[in-house]
Amino acid sequence: MPIPSKSLPTMLATLALAFTGGFVFHLLSVPLPWLLGPMFACLAAALGGAKLNGPPVLGDAMRTILGVAVGASITPDVVARVPEMATSLMLIPPFILVIGCAGYPFFRRVCGLDKATSFYGAMPGGLQDMLIFGEEAGGNVRHLSLLHATRVLIVVTALPVVLTLVLGLSLDQPIGAPTLDLPPHELGLMVVIAGLGWWGAKKVGLFGASILGPMILAAVASLTGIIHSRPPAEAILLAQYFIGLNIGVKYVGVTWGELTRIVLAGIGYTLIIMIIAFCFAEAAVFLGLAPQASALLAFSPGGQAEMTVLAIVAGVDLAYVVTHHLTRIVVVIVGAPIAAKFLR
User: Fold this and answer.
1) Residues 6+ away with beta carbon under 8 Å from 269
2) Which end of the chain has a smaller Cβ tally under 10 Å, C or N?
3) CA separation (Å) from 59 to 30, 117, 134, 203?
4) Is 24 exposed, middle or buried (0-12, 13-18, 19+ CB in 10 A)?
């Protein structure tokens, strides 16, 4: 889709701002500089009233990189471990139920939001899916966007601090081999897998098409021995850059009223569900289902792409983390509309 000429300067300025934020965070040795730097640079500019505009299609294209990275990590050894995860995965439905039972009354009774916005704002699913469901139910799309953006923003900001200062992880695990170290034919195959997987997933209407389509195709390629590596480190860094940029840009145009009411509501809700997530993660650790870092990332209510990045740089069990987030999203997407009709 061509970019309107009027928005091109704004988009270029946004890309430059995000790069500056990443570079400054890199100089300051902040964990995940190319994710957090662009995110906070764009967030600060958006809250200051700046007009920002990220390239949405390119942002989705960057998500395909993470899809391929996850899929390439699914090996026969990982598949053999799936039965071991069954007990842990059974915690996901009650986890979502507890979040909904805490989040809906908070938004409805404490924050005074309408029923549809309260319900879909409390559901820890994918942003786009919750916006579509919420709009169809008569909710406020702008409020839903801010609520979920705030949830992801806080989780992505808090988790690196917890992982480094509390759990003692360094977040400096190799995210992939350099481009020049990978076989050229595998690089080409990854590009084909990313594009074809995304296109095919969109054609069949699969949720999270930009990640899940490439992930499924890459998993097949990995299990059949067609590819043996994750995407190169430079590609995964680029994906982090665009993920951070897109989170910050979601706050463009926020009003003072929205900031003091909706964003604060999102902050309060996120603190509540982070406590819930911690309790379920500790339950998984207590039952011997996973190490603490893996369990914490698996139950943290952040975005699927963001949690994938954190799992990679933390060096935890990527398959365990991604499987739990996929289960969470599937349960929310399938169950939320049914629950909404039942409640009505």
Assistant:
1) 103, 106, 107, 121, 122, 147, 151
2) N
3) 23, 26, 23, 19
4) middle
Strand positions, DSSP E, the chain: none
pLDDT, one tens digit for every residue, the chain (344 residues): 445 545 788 889 999 999 999 999 999 888 788 888 998 999 999 988 888 888 766 777 888 888 888 788 777 877 787 788 889 999 999 999 999 999 999 999 999 998 889 998 999 877 667 876 787 788 888 888 889 889 988 998 899 999 999 988 888 787 778 888 888 999 999 999 999 999 998 888 876 688 788 988 998 998 898 888 888 889 888 888 988 898 888 888 888 888 889 999 999 999 999 999 999 999 999 999 999 999 999 999 887 778 888 888 888 888 889 888 888 887 887 777 777 777 66
User: Measuring CA to CA, which residue among 65, 158, 79 is closest to residue 320?
Assistant: 79
Contact predicate 292/167, CB 8 Å: yes
CB atoms within 10 A of CB 185: 10
In this structure, is the dihedral angle defined by the CA atoms of residues 153, 156, 160 and 163, taken in order, positive or negative? positive
Query: Residue written as tokens 């997407």?
Result: 333
The two three-digit tokens of residue 217, written as one number: 């195709």
- Residue 105 near residue 269 (C-beta atoms within 8 A): no
d(CA 336, CA 124): 10
First to last CA, the chain: 40
Which of 292, 36, 312, 317 lies closest to 167, judged by CA?
292
Query: Can you tell me which residue has the tokens 């009774």?
Result: 109
